[in-house]
Design a protein that fits this description.
Elements lengths: L4 H14 L1 E7 L4 E5 L1 H4 L12 H8 L1 H12 L7 E7 L7 E10 L5 E10 L1 H13 L11 H18 L3 E8 L2 H8 L1 H17 L6 E6 L2 E6 L7 H13 L3 E3 L2 E3 L3 E8 L6 H17 L5 E3 L4 H23 L2 E10 L5 E11 L5 E3 L4 H6 L3 H18 L5 E5 L1 H4 L2 H13 L1 H4 L2 E6 H6 L1 H13 L3 E7 L6 H7 L3 E4 L11 H16 L3 E4 L5 H10 L3 E2 L19
């Protein structure tokens, strides 16, 4: 039925290689001939039953069976090809996809169906996970920041329409970094989960909670009077403070500080509400642990807020108008003094022709949740440059906010995989604090990047508290020494001791080193003597928006 012997052998080899099963089903006698089905089926207890159309449809389940029957019963369809996804009725259910062509007889009815069957369980699980991560925080199971902000927008709109009031609270675990350093990241995660559970248990069924950052939870109260806010804040703080948290390392005490804003009186958008609640939280934390502050208007803070929102508007306009650009700074070999690769430093080209450095707009983008869009554009721009210039190696930065977002990290990995041919010429830089903030997620992220050929560097090393043991566990390739220890190195014996020690440790862990902010030939020679592999700084080249690179040959 599948043609002559040569064609059948070619088909068999093709389906074996693709791990797909080919089938030819003659409807009149309900008989199905398969090629390669034993390679695809992992959960069917009796594959012989699939040798009939009836057995196949029973295995597919009612919904998929009805779809298949509708395709078969249609007279002379305009499009004979069709696809069906289904979950098999097996002791261990698996997902499969059928792609087939319906061949009509002389009267227009289906005479035979020829196609392929392939297993798609892994893809379905990955899609389910991505769909989940698009809405929920993987660690706590609460809404993520994006979904929480959507819910907050709806809540504010309903309150305004009903002339009622609601409130938004942000609760932050106090001194989580201390817990990290004392007990380790696993125990800190247990504290985060337990804190989220306790805050959730202190809420009404109509209230909504989400995790907005590593140590922060956002809470929406759909109905809340202004006088109730302090009572709610105390209930939230007491839920965490009054009972120690049982962890695998023993009992850990935790507290939260809380900031709140009354809506829609004090903010009319979710962006404003989140920003003002964060302002209140900052003031609550300034007095120590277990604090609470409700937002009150201040001319100075209003001015700062308006400036922040203006910058965010500029960023969105630049994204839409493709006015985010790179300035490329060379990173040279310490011995060769030749450019080995270039760091892509982000710039915003304003409409008036002026250029804004990243430090002028990235903090606002991080505060207002726009940095994920920015980081995605950075990745796309770098990949385009790597295709255009096949002899160039580039490094890009991932912001700390993005590095703690599992769904974004997954989308980053997917994009790199789709452009794997240039991945080996790309280095991804994570800041030290971002790398340890969500250690396990970032460890998986780094591992998958390196598996696809990317290199990974830790930027600003020395500014935080990462140990070389953690760097080894992250499997990074390179550390970039924080420029504060490199600038005017020749005149600082303390910095010389620090850099020399760091470089020696890096060599023990087979990590390459880059010294940033190298400003003089004397510093460069000293760094080379210490064993630093690469140098970066104005001494070797300023960031250049139009480097003289050769284009891809035609």
């Amino acid at each position: 039925m599948l043609g002559n012997a040569n064609a059948a052998e070619r088909l068999r080899l093709a389906v074996v290689g693709a791990r797909e099963a080919a089938f030819d089903w003659t409807v009149a006698d309900d008989w199905i001939v398969w090629e390669g089905v034993e390679l695809v089926l992992t959960s069917h207890t009796d594959p012989a039953r699939l040798e009939t159309g009836r057995g196949l449809m029973e295995w597919m389940g009612a919904e998929a069976r009805d779809k298949l029957l509708s395709y078969l019963s249609e007279l002379a369809p305009a499009e004979p090809a069709f696809e069906i996804e289904f979950e098999s009725l097996s002791p261990t259910p698996e997902w499969y996809e059928i792609r087939a062509v319906r061949v009509a007889g002389s009267n227009g009815t289906a005479e035979r169906v020829t196609g392929i069957l392939r297993a798609i369980t892994e893809q379905k699980h990955a899609l389910t996970r991505l769909t989940y991560l698009a809405a929920y925080d993987e660690l706590t199971g609460h809404l993520n920041r994006t979904r929480l902000r959507d819910e907050l927008s709806k809540t504010i709109a309903r309150a305004a329409a009903n002339e009622s009031h609601c409130a938004y609270f942000v609760a932050a675990i106090d001194k989580l970094a201390v817990i990290n350093e004392t007990y380790g990241f696993d125990i800190a995660d247990e504290v985060i989960v337990a804190t989220g559970q306790r805050l959730g248990s202190a809420l009404r069924a109509s209230d909504v909670i989400g995790r907005t950052a590593g140590n922060k939870f956002g809470i929406i109260l759909a109905e809340c009077g202004e006088q109730e806010m302090s009572l709610v804040a105390e209930r939230l703080r007491a839920s965490v403070r009054d009972t120690v948290i049982e962890t695998h390392a023993g009992r850990v005490s935790a507290t939260v500080s809380v900031g709140a804003v009354w809506l829609p009186t004090q903010a009319v958008t979710s962006q404003e509400a989140m920003l003002r609640a964060e302002e209140a939280l900052d003031r609550a934390k300034s007095s120590g642990r277990n604090g609470y502050v409700a937002y009150t208007q201040s001319p100075q803070r209003e001015s700062a807020r308006r400036r922040l929102i203006t910058i965010a508007d500029d960023v969105m306009a630049a994204l839409n108008d493709h006015r985010l650009v790179f300035a490329y700074q060379p990173i040279v070999g310490a011995a060769s003094r030749k450019a080995e690769h270039y760091e892509c430093l982000l710039r915003l080209a304003r409409k008036d022709g002026s250029i804004a450095a990243a430090g002028e707009f990235i903090p606002a983008a991080e505060t207002l949740g726009l940095v994920r869009l920015v980081d995605r554009r950075v990745l796309e721009m770098a990949v385009a440059q790597l295709y255009a210039h096949p002899d160039v190696k580039l490094s890009i930065n991932v912001s700390g906010t993005t590095a703690s977002d599992p769904s974004w990290l997954q989308s980053f990995i997917t994009y790199v995989r789709e452009n794997r041919e240039v991945a080996e010429r790309m280095t991804v830089e994570l800041t030290e604090t971002a790398a340890i903030h969500a250690f396990e997620e970032n460890a998986r992220f780094v591992s998958r990047l390196r598996d696809m050929g990317c290199r990974v560097a830790i930027d600003d090393f020395g500014a935080g508290y990462t140990s070389f043991r953690n760097l080894h566990m992250l499997r990074v390739d390179m550390v970039k020494i924080d420029g504060a220890y490199v600038r005017e190195l020749c005149t600082s014996p303390d910095n010389q001791l620090f850099v020399r020690t760091l470089v020696n440790l890096a060599k023990n862990f087979q990590l390459e080193t880059v010294a940033e902010w190298v400003g003089s030939e004397q510093d460069a020679l000293l760094l080379k003597e210490f064993g630093v592999d690469y140098l970066q700084g104005y001494c070797f080249g300023e960031p250049d928006m139009a480097p003289a690179w050769p284009d891809r040959p035609n």
